[in-house]
């Protein structure tokens, strides 16, 4: 049971980090595109 909870916790953390990095890079791209066009 401890192993399962550890795997789930690691999966949630990795999922959160993935979306956080994705949103950060996505935000940078969205911010850079208008400045590049202008």
Report on this model:
The protein has about 40 residues and is mainly α. The protein has one domain. The protein contains 1 helix and no strands. The radius of gyration is 16 Å and the shape is rod-shaped.
User: Average pLDDT, to the nearest integer?
Assistant: 80
Number of domains: 1
Distance between the termini: 56 Å
Low-confidence stretches: none
Q: Please report the total strand number as a whole number.
A: 0
User: Mind summarizing the main beta sheet?
Assistant: none
Category from helices, strands and their pairing: mainly alpha
Radius of gyration: 16 Å
Hey, roughly how much beta strand do the residues contain? under 5%
In which range does the helix fraction lie?
over 70%
Order of helices and strands: H
In a few lines, what is going on in this structure?
It contains 1 helix and no strands. The protein has one helix at 2-37.
Per-chain topology:
Elements (H helix, E strand, L loop, with lengths): L1 H36 L1
Keyword list:
rod-shaped, 38 residues, mainly alpha
